């Protein structure tokens, strides 16, 4: 079990750091507003302000640096790194940029590059404590513990009261197997500032490793008092109480952990194991089911649940769980023993005998292969000298341990974490929006509308000259916008729309020229579209095309209305396959799911693409046609062609945020991870806030996938 590796990265937004003088007052004011947005954790808004400054004055380093800070807090590390590179290209003496870029390299698991950046920053400012602290952390990451200890000792010579240096030097010493030195440093941190919980937490872990559980409990109690809303502290204390056989206290701490972090599977897993130990089988099964709902690939938990179902006599449920485990672990003998008993209870005697024979053979093979090594290891363990006052520790497993043989062991946080809790609000986009649970869908196709739905200040609004000219001929007095989200229409507005439809119909009867008729048909078609009369909308747009085959906006709107029609029909089939735009991070390269689109949908999609082809033929500079065609190609699984169309849309409009977003998802489908992540970063920079959530989620998925591949049972 590894101890918590506390990273005290000091990212200071200095008030006067690294700045170039700015001539225009508006630019100065925009910079102040952007930095205020950073201070109030509205990172999305801050990025938009710095985007504007960069457009006007791309030769200034500060806006790139501050935009990098915003991206850093949104965990868009590749995008932030790119901005830091630009800031340092403009101003190679910008200390804060070296510091931030070093941090980003660490986040991206490139500590060697971090060391280089911190050293380059120290060449400019040799006594910069932020750089020195982070340099020590980078040395710890590269396992150069002696160098890290040396750095922190130098810091303490200059600043003997800097608690962070004691904590990090203690970490370095612990990593270097100097437990006594680490204990001294953590105790010194507690002595110098008893109001920082990290010293207590780290010292408690030293005591825990030494088997001094009472001392460990006392320190964690102190940390809980200082930081009562931090979930991980209750998990730590619960594990310590478990070692002390205080099961009531353990249960109370696990309950509190689940209350504070209800989507953390580890809490339910440990509480389920504890409930099973005390005989609460129903409670344990409920907890294990919650684990599997959050982490469906957790087969050790599935195996344990099967055992509990078996113990309760619910044999068919047990058999279902065992079947899945046996498929995943065909060489694990206990699952065959258990399944044999379940099948025997169900009267499946032949199948039970087959499972029993398989289990016997597997166990004999296993013992023959590793029996001697296990005996030698057990003998060596018995001969080890242990402190006289050391209490024997109950076996546990790491947080990410998926070894099937450890199914019944309590999980301990791999780092006994002390991460700061995130401050989130449920209704705003401020703060660390990458932590919000956001549905991951492609950004939908665009159409002309009187009622744009996405009015967020952060999102780019699009305009087109031809659309504006068309709107000038309309009679409703409403503005026309290009949008891919439409807002809800009030009852009063709906009544006005129907009145307008009647007036437009009357005007059409009296129209005496083609241009007037086309404009009236376009306006009425958009009204029909707004009130969801899609058949009439399509008919009006088709009539417009018949009158004027060069009216590309009529083709564009007909394609949009046809898409709405397909989606409306599909919405009535709720029992069908999941949403076809859903992002899958399984590496399958198939966002449509196993079923895909049915034949009728494919025919409809082809009709839509035909209309969009005509738009592109008539108006090749109209980026929204390329975007919509790319979207339709995604639905038809033609991802390479979709990426090409999105690229064309971006070439026509380099600030087309949604095109970057969708191209990024398509590239992820195609397992072009680096390119996809950079596209998502650009989309987030331009205002599609969902991108940051996906960057974080996809990064977490990749990490989890890597851990699973590395974890294997014996």
TrEMBL record:
Sorted UniProt keywords: Repeat, Signal, TPR repeat
SMART domains referenced in this protein's UniProt entry, alphabetically: TPR
First and last residue of the signal peptide: 1-23
Pfam families in UniProt: TPR_11, TPR_16, TPR_9
TPR repeats: 95-128, 129-162, 163-196, 197-230, 231-264, 265-298, 299-332, 518-551, 623-656
Keyword Signal: yes
Residue ranges, annotated region (Disordered): 373-404
PANTHER family from the UniProt entry: TETRATRICOPEPTIDE REPEAT PROTEIN 6, UDP-N-ACETYLGLUCOSAMINE--PEPTIDE N-ACETYLGLUCOSAMINYLTRANSFERASE SPINDLY-RELATED
Designated name of the protein: Tfp pilus assembly protein PilF
């Amino acid at each position: 079990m590894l101890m918590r590796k506390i990273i005290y990265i000091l990212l200071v937004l200095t008030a006067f750091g690294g700045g170039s003088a700015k001539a225009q007052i508006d630019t100065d004011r925009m910079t102040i507003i952007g930095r205020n947005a950073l201070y109030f954790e509205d990172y999305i808004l801050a990025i938009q302000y710095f985007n504007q400054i960069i457009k006007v004055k791309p030769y200034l380093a500060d806006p790139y640096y501050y935009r990098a800070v915003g991206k850093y807090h949104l965990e868009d590390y590749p995008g932030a790194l790119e901005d830091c590179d630009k800031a340092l290209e403009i101003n190679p003496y910008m200390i804060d940029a070296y510091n931030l870029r070093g941090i980003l390299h660490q986040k991206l698991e490139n500590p060697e590059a971090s060391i280089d950046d911190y050293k380059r920053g120290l060449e400019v400012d040799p006594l910069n404590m932020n750089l020195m602290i982070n340099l020590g952390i980078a040395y710890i990451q590269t396992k150069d513990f002696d160098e890290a200890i040396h750095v922190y000792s130098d810091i303490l010579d200059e600043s003997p009261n800097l608690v962070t240096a004691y904590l990090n030097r203690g970490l370095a010493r612990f990593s270097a197997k100097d437990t006594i030195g680490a204990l001294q440093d953590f105790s010194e941190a507690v002595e110098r500032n008893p109001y920082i919980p990290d010293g207590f937490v780290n010292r408690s872990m030293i005591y825990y490793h030494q088997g001094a559980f009472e001392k460990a409990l006392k320190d964690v109690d102190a940390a809980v008092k200082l930081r009562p809303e931090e979930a991980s502290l209750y998990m730590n204390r619960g594990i310590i109480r478990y070692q002390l056989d205080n099961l009531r206290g353990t249960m109370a701490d696990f309950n509190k952990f689940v209350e504070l972090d209800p989507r953390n599977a580890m809490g339910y897993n440990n509480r389920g194991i504890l409930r099973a130990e005390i005989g609460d089988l129903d409670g344990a099964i409920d907890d294990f089911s919650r684990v599997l709902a959050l982490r469906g690939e957790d087969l050790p938990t599935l195996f344990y649940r099967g055992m509990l179902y078996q113990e309760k006599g619910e044999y068919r449920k047990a058999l279902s769980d065992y079947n899945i485990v046996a498929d995943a672990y065909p060489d694990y003998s206990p699952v065959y023993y258990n399944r044999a008993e379940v099948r025997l209870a169900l009267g499946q005697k032949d199948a039970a005998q087959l499972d029993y024979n398989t289990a016997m053979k597997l166990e004999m093979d296993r013992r023959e292969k590793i029996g001697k090594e296990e005996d030698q290891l057990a003998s060596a363990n018995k001969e080890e000298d242990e402190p006289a006052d050391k209490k024997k520790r109950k076996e546990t497993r790491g947080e990410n341990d998926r070894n099937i043989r450890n199914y019944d062991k309590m999980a301990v946080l791999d780092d006994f974490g002390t991460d700061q809790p995130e401050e989130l609000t449920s209704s705003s986009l401020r703060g660390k929006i990458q932590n919000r649970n956001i549905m991951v869908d492609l950004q939908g196709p665009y159409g002309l509308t009187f009622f744009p739905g996405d009015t967020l200040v952060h999102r780019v609004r699009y305009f087109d000259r031809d659309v504006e000219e068309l709107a000038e001929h309309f009679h409703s007095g409403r503005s026309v916008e290009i949008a891919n989200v439409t807002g809800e229409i009030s009852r009063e507005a709906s009544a006005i729309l129907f009145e307008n439809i009647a007036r437009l119909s009357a005007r059409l009867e009296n129209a005496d020229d083609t241009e007037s008729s086309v404009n009236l048909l376009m306006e009425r078609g958009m009204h029909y579209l707004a009130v969801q009369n899609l058949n009439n909308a399509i008919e009006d747009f088709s009539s417009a095309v018949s009158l004027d085959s060069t009216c590309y906006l009529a083709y564009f709107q007909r394609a949009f209305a046809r898409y709405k029609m397909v989606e409306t029909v599909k919405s009535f089939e709720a029992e069908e396959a999941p949403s076809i735009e859903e992002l899958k991070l399984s590496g399958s390269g198939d966002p449509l799911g196993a079923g895909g689109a049915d034949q009728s949908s494919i025919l409809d999609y082809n009709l839509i693409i035909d209309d969009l082809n005509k738009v592109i033929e008539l108006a090749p500079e109209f980026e929204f046609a390329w975007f919509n065609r790319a979207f339709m190609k995604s639905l038809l699984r033609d991802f390479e062609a979709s990426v090409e169309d999105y690229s064309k849309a971006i070439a026509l409009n380099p600030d087309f945020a949604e095109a970057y977003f969708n191209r990024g998802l398509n590239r992820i489908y195609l397992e072009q991870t680096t390119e996809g992540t950079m596209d998502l970063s650009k989309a987030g920079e331009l205002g599609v806030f969902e991108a940051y959530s996906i960057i974080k989620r996809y990064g977490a998925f990749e990490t989890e996938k890597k851990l699973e591949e590395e974890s294997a049972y014996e």
